[in-house]
Amino acid sequence: MASLMMWVCLSAAAEKTTVPIKGYKGNNTQTEQPVKHRAPMNLPIEVVYDSDTMTIEVSCATDLEAEVYVYDASEVLEDYSPCINAVLSVTDSDLHTIVIEGDGWEATGVIE
Q1: Phi, psi angles (nearest 5°) of residue 62
Q2: pLDDT in tens, 7-44
Q3: What's the order of all strands across the beta sheet hosting 36-41?
Q4: Average pLDDT in the 77-105 region?
Q5: Distance (Å, rounded) from C-alpha 21 to C-alpha 43?
C-alpha cells in the first residue's frame, strides 16, 4: 500500500514541469541583423509545462509586456499569445521551443 501511495505521488508530480527560461537583451526587432548580448537577464517569468493536458502556462508577476510563441520540433508555430500571462496548447511533438519577445529583449526555453 505504501509503495502504491508513493507511485501515485510521484506520477502526480511528473505531470507539471518547470521550464528554464534564458533571457537576453538585444535589438531583435530594430535592425535587419539582430544583436543579442551574451550575458543572460534575470526575468520574473515562470513557464510550466503540463504533459497531461498538453499545455504551457506562462506567467509573470510584474508588468512586463511580451508576446509568446511556441514552436514544435519542425519549427512550425503551434500556438501564440499577444500577452505574457497565457496558457498555450501544444501537440504531441517530442520537442517544443518557447520564444518570449519583449521590447528590446528575448527569452527562450525548450521542452524535450
Answers
A1: -105, -175
A2: 444 444 458 999 998 888 875 544 455 555 555 678 89
A3: 36-41, 22-26, 105-111, 96-102, 66-71, 77-81
A4: 95
A5: 8
